[in-house]
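From the methods appendix. Each design record in this collection lists the discretized structure first, followed by the designed amino acid sequence. Records were kept in a plain field format so they could be parsed without special tools. The example shown here is representative of the layout used throughout.

RECORD:
C-ALPHA CELLS (137 positions):
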C-alpha cells in the first residue's frame, strides 16, 4: 500500500480520515480517497480541519401536470411532413364533386316522388268521382 495519509470524501459531505488505504469504508459503502499534500500531513499530530467537498446535486426543474394530448376526432395524428396543399385542394374538389352528384340525384328522386304522389292523388280523386264503390258512400 501507499505510505502517508489520505482523506476520503463521501457524497453526504462527511469527512473520513484514513491512512495507507486507497479507499475508505463506512456504513454507506466505499468512498473516494484523495491523498493529503505534505503540508497537511498528520505525522502524529492533530490533523488540520479540511472542509468537506461539496458535490453539485443535479437540479431537475419541477414539472407541472402533463399537457393533455390534442383531440384527434377519431383520426390518427399526422406523421412526418405536412401534406401538399395542391393534393389537399384536389381531394377537396373530388369530395365536393361527389357531394354535388349525390345532391342532384336526391333532388331528382324527390321530384319524381312528388310527381308520383300528385298523380296518385289525381287518380284517387277521379275514382271517387266515378263512384265505383258498389253502394258504399
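DESIGN:
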Amino acid at each position: 500500500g501507499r505510505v502517508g495519509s489520505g482523506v476520503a470524501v463521501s457524497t453526504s459531505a462527511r469527512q473520513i480520515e484514513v491512512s495507507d488505504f486507497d479507499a475508505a469504508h463506512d456504513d454507506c459503502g466505499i468512498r473516494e480517497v484523495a491523498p493529503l499534500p505534505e503540508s497537511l500531513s498528520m505525522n502524529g499530530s492533530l490533523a488540520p480541519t479540511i472542509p468537506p467537498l461539496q458535490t453539485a446535486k443535479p437540479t431537475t426543474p419541477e414539472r407541472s401536470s402533463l399537457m393533455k394530448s390534442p383531440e384527434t376526432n377519431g383520426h390518427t395524428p399526422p406523421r412526418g411532413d405536412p401534406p401538399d396543399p395542391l393534393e389537399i385542394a384536389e381531394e377537396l374538389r373530388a369530395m365536393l364533386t361527389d357531394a354535388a352528384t349525390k345532391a342532384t340525384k336526391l333532388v331528382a328522386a324527390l321530384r319524381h316522388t312528388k310527381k308520383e304522389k300528385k298523380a296518385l292523388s289525381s287518380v284517387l280523386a277521379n275514382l271517387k268521382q266515378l263512384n265505383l264503390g258498389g253502394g258504399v258512400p
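APPENDIX NOTE: Residues 5-40 form one domain.
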